[in-house]
Every structure is written in structure tokens, then in C-alpha cells.
Fold each of these.
Amino acid sequence: MQRKTAASYPPARWHLDEDRRRQEQQPGGEQRSSVAPQHGAGNRAALAEARALVTAGRSSVVRSALVRTMAAEPAFRERWLRSLARELRGLPPALSRTCS
């Protein structure tokens, strides 16, 4: 299980004004950020794993293997999954079958 790397940032916090943000400062004037990553050993491992996944996802070989795995799933008959597979292959979106 991957460790969470940042504190929650619920919608209620999205529009906090500057005065409220100043009130949330930690002792010593350090600003507490709800989106900044933590730096413990578990967090560093999770960030390293995320970076490795992004790097792997940039490889056409890995993306092709993912598409082959997806194609074997029963859900592949769903249009949204086939559309995702096209994107992973670097193909343009399929033409819509709906009539205008």
C-alpha cells in the first residue's frame, strides 16, 4: 500500500483568505502547507515509487503492455476503456457513433 505524501486538502480549504492562512502558521512563523509533501522515510519511498511509475508510463513498451492487459479485461467492451487504450497508444480519439 502506498503511503499518502501530502495532507488532505478538502474543498472547504480551497478558498481560505490570507488572514486565515496567516492564522494557520505554526509556532516560529513557519507556514503549514496542506499540499506540501512530507519528508519522512515512508514518504520519500512513496514519492520515489510515484516517480518510477511516471517514468515507466512514458515508455511506449510499458504503455503497450498496459493496453494488452486492459484488452484482456471484460470491461474492455466499454467505450471509455477503449478510448483510454487509444490515448495510451498515441492514437487520436475515435469518431463518435452518435448522430447529430
Amino acid sequence: MGVSPHRRAANHVMVSARGDVGSYTSEVLSALGRSRRVQLTVTHFIVALAAIAETDLIGTIPVSVVGTYGRRFGLATAPLPFDQGDASFVHLVAPRAGLMDAGLVWLMDTIERLVLEDPGS
């Protein structure tokens, strides 16, 4: 299963508690021969959620964080389009208001379809 060029082209927020330039997600993408365009690095997931809610950024956020705080920020989620180990670890997150954008809706639907698609078919 590949990572959509549209998703890679999106601007990402990355969470790094120490302010490092890399992350677990970046390492997984690198192993797949892919990368993402990180526009903003923050030190806390709550700050990442706030940034996503107020901008056109997307991010990979642990399900537990999105489940607890996503609704407060008006965010929508989609599964990642690549294997990052435990499938419940992270979701693609976008502002709920962004779902009024047909392009973002298409992107999230495409990602979901790709994630659920049987690679053997």
C-alpha cells in the first residue's frame, strides 16, 4: 500500500518532545522510501491538535489523544495509508471545518479506501 502523493504534498505538523527533526512516523516513511513535508514541529500533541484545527496542516496523532481531545478541536480522523505497526497507534487528523473542502474529503476518503483495500486483490 503506497502513500498518496497528495498526502505527502500536504504540510504536516510533527510532534517531537525534544524538538528533534525526526520522528517514529518519519522513520517508518523513510523505510518505505517516502518522506513528508514537515512545516511545523511542536513539543506536545495538544499543541499539534490546536495547530491542525487552525491551519491547513495535517498530522499523525495517537488515537488516544485524538479520542480524548479531537472533538474539542473539531477534528476529523482517517487511518494512515501505510503500516506503522499497531493500527490503533495513530490517525490522520484534519480540521472538521476542512471537511467542507471537497479536495480534503476526497483525500481522506481515498486514504481510507487504500487502508481498507486488500493488497492481494
